[in-house]
UniProtKB/TrEMBL annotation:
Identification of the protein by name: Major facilitator superfamily (MFS) profile domain-containing protein
PANTHER family noted in UniProt: POLYOL TRANSPORTER 3-RELATED, SOLUTE CARRIER FAMILY 2, FACILITATED GLUCOSE TRANSPORTER
N-terminal signal peptide: none
Main location: membrane
Segments traversing the membrane: 12-32, 57-77, 84-102, 108-130, 142-165, 177-196, 310-332, 338-359, 371-392, 437-461
Family as reported in the entry's similarity comment: Belongs to the major facilitator superfamily. Sugar transporter (TC 2.A.1.1) family.
Amino acid sequence: MERGGGGDEGQFNKYALACAVVASMVSIIFGYDTGVMSGAMIFIKEELGISDTQQEVLAGILNICALVGSLAAGRISDYVGRRYTISMASILFMLGAILMGYGPNYAILMTGRCVAGVGVGFALMIAPVYSAEISSAKSRGLLTSLPELCIGIGILLGYILNYVFGKFLPLKLGWRLMLGVAAVPSLALAIGILFMPESPRWLVMRGHLPKAKKVLLKISNTEQEAENRFNDIKLAAGIGDENNSLAAKENQNGKSVWKELLLHPSPPVRWMLITAVGIHFFEHATGIEAVMLYSPRIFRKAGVTSKEHLLLATIGVGLTKITFLVIASFLLDRVGRRKLLLVSLGGMVCALAVLGFSLTMVEGSPEQRLAWGLTLSIVATYTFVAFFNIGLGPVTWVYSSEIFPLRLRAQGASIGVAVNRVMNATVSMSFISIYKAITIGGAFFMFSGISIVAWLFFFFLMPETKGKALEEMEMVFTRKSHRDVAAAGTQNNTR
């Protein structure tokens, strides 16, 4: 599978990188929308006078709508292609940004947020899948982690523009520009993505073999590598030289995909689905959205009082996120997904426990202890963000987009994204209520406990996929194959 045939094949392909970068731009828009809302809510509450419950709904409705978008995007991307699905996501972001930027009242604001939410579902499903399908096994970790890195860049841009618009523009105009400016890059991307090549694996699945071969020649370093990848993809899609028309037709019709995924999955597919659902569940169940969306509230609870200082502190969160996402991008193909994930969860457990402790002490301590509590809370928050983004954050999207076989990849990834959005919405819409019920320190102790469960889940259920071709994943997720390979290795060693 994706066999080596020459010294050039291990080199990085710049055209494939360019394709992944352009596809990942849609994630910058999503990240910006997430980051900018954390600061914009301060000003929205001041002008529109919305309640805490309305803030929770405004924060979380994006993810409820993204659930719908992600489930629809899987089937749509199989019919119209990966490129057009990215373009559709960009158009939805543009419409949502225009409505939110207009935002004369809470109802219009919510409508724009819902439209953007459907775009989020499209973007989160399709960007990693497209990046995975154009990359080779040796560079897939880096290319498939680019959407998550772009989300981080978008979040940081949102935090920075929060500060700039909030400081230099009047209240009515400031938050509307924060939300509406995303319409411009959305339109540019919707057009620009059409100049990129389609996924060769989708082209094979649809029976467009000459077009797929042409794309593979561009994203491979040698003709031999392109030929090897082409043959492996055809084999995985069940397409041979004699029966490619029939197999392609079956793939186009999408026969039995949901049945094979949910009703009668084979043991490897069942294992893939459990792992994909689990990693998406724990990405948000461990509390990252509480920190990214409500960081101004956390810092206010810790003792930061002015709006300017609150927004500056959140910029630090964004910088930390990007720094460690960049580090993770280069480690994924060297260290591996599994090791990074386990280290990440271990660090998150400790950081969340310290954050819970420091916030509890600040709330219950006399005035003179606030200084050290504030410092410890900020350090713990940044440490949590760092550990999350060196492992769990990027690995979630890399892993879930690479493990499913071609015939199930889009729908399998869409199920993972749906779970991801449900958990994101759950945390977004309940965090304020949770910390009011059990204190803000208690909320982070709870997240620390969930992180321990997540570490155990990944330790026992997650196989390593580093360096494996997409067409090999069913073998990776077959326990019997592992035993056979180990037994064969033992026999060879004794000969």
